[in-house]
Sequence to fold (355 residues):
Amino acid sequence: MSSNNSLIDNIWQYFTHDIGIDLGTANTLVFVLGKGIVIREPSTVAIHKKTKDVLSVGTDAQKMIGKTPANIIALRPLRDGVISDFDATEAMLSYFIKKVHKTRKPFSYKIPRPRMTVGIPSGITEVERKAVIDAARRSGARKVYLIEEPMAAAIGAGLPVEEASGSMVVDIGGGTSEMAVISLGGIVVSRSIRVAGDEMDKAIVDWVKQRHNLIIGERTAEKVKIQIGSALPNTESEPETATIRGRDLRTGLPREITISENDLYEALNPAISLIVDNIKDTVEETPPEIISDLYSQGIVLTGGGALIRRLDKRIANETQMPVFIDKDPLTTVARGCGISLEQISLLNKVQIPQS
Fold:
């Protein structure tokens, strides 16, 4: 029976594109077998308030945030790594699946339903997992496999997850930061905290408001974080600066200010300190035999947060271990989800069992 199922899957793969998805709070990435990353768009949906019709998804929807009329709402259907709006998430996944299959064979009159591997935070509940599975199935998936994000990140980074040696990965996304020690195809120790890119953006908004009496949006905060955000102060050269615009709290009129990377360090330090403390706690809970592996192999950073200046240096200083940033940290989880679809034995070992 299993051989028949395998044969059917092989036939269906000719007509459909099996996909791995990094269903992120900030961005959704889609990996297609044989093609790599084909979609990288914001996890945003624009909906008509009265009719509930989906007006746009992804990049187009993100452009509407903060600029929509009263009858349209642009929202992010995932918060802290979990689904907060089921219908919007389903619509977003359906849109991405159709976009992947728009180049299907001309004689195929119907899109076969693909297999889908989805990366999820390691700390979410059974109910939250079921919500992801239901949304994926209703959006058109034939089979849904769930993989914890740190495991997917480790696979995507090329770490020896199935070997009898320890590997450590830290994935800092938009909604959650995941840190895990992996050995023999399983997670030995892990932590998941809901402090990541979004919290850093909010911290910048609050800092600018308190220090400069200026109100800025989270998109502006995200842009300046990417531009000059730092995990350590710059003491070696002239700090880089950036200009931001917002609304003056006292006059209500537009105003612009210039801030430096050292200012951003001050704003981001509380959130980054919490992430680093959890990394250290994870290391402290790791069995002694694996610690020696980590000391020689180091820690791999993935996710958008890995690109914050000097974060690798700060983690290395505080853990006394080498730290490396993956070659393309923004796509690591999506690549891991896609690679697992190509290796069935690996997928069976690392997927989260479904009740």
Observations:
- The CA atoms of residues 105 and 307 lie 39 Å apart.
